[in-house]
Amino acid sequence: MDHTDAMPIAELLDERRYLRDVADSMLSRRSEAESVVDETYRRWFGLSEAARRRIKAPRSWLARTVDGICRSRLAQPFLDDDVTHEGETAEVRRAAARPAAVPEAEVSRVQPMALDSLSPARRVRFLLEDVFGMAPGTFTNVWGHPVPERNEAQQLLHFLRLRRSTPTTPQQHDAAVRAVRQACLNDDVDLLASLLDPDVAAFFDGGGKVRALPRPVHGRWHVAHSLLKLLTCHPGTTLTTHSVNGRTGLVARYGHQVAAVVSLDIADDQVAQVWAVLNPDKLLTWNQTPAQTRPPA
């Protein structure tokens, strides 16, 4: 996985709406259509990364899977082979033909405010074990190599880069976030990368509800490219600053819908961590409040 896998928020929302429309056209209840779309994404993320890469047209695969799930619910028989196509591996066909197991703890259950109450070490332990499914007592660094358990605290603190000698004031935090916003608006990858810590980590919380990056992204250049791809200035997409969990963050809208809420951890005037909430369920509160009552900061 790398930053080339990132998708603009406009495409993320359009894809989910398209799949819901396909399900709506076949089923009578909207709630059932939503559950079909959720099941479709569970099957997508149930594939291995290698299997997903072999699918040349993901939206078409997703649409065929929606169609197959709907036909199964309408006619009861198990899914036929018409949800697959030539060239797909046995793993892809099996995933399209049966429900994928739901992860024991998926990103959709993570609440940023709750994470803020944890120490940096416990926060990353939770992310890596409970959210990203790593075995307890085993941590990996940014290259994927095992880290000895006796060094885990030091490695985790270095991973997040949140413990620095100079505290960040609200004014410094605000200035750094506004600089990130401007770099994104200008599509300036060099400027954006310069605002990021060399060991910055970015988490994209799609909750398995949209085709967001399923794993963290590390390093200033990978994170910069991923953020620009996500927040690209697609027609109808806007990016503003707003209070997020008590500090300045970024809110991305596609049309009138809030599509992403981004919180940034700042240390020594650089971004040490990015948390982008893309899960539609977590954004319900933002979208239930009229936009005019949530003016940009």
From TrEMBL:
It comes from Streptomyces cadmiisoli. It comes from the Bacteria. GO terms for molecular function: sigma factor activity. This is RNA polymerase subunit sigma. InterPro entries: ECF_Sigma-70_Domain, NTF2-like_dom_sf.
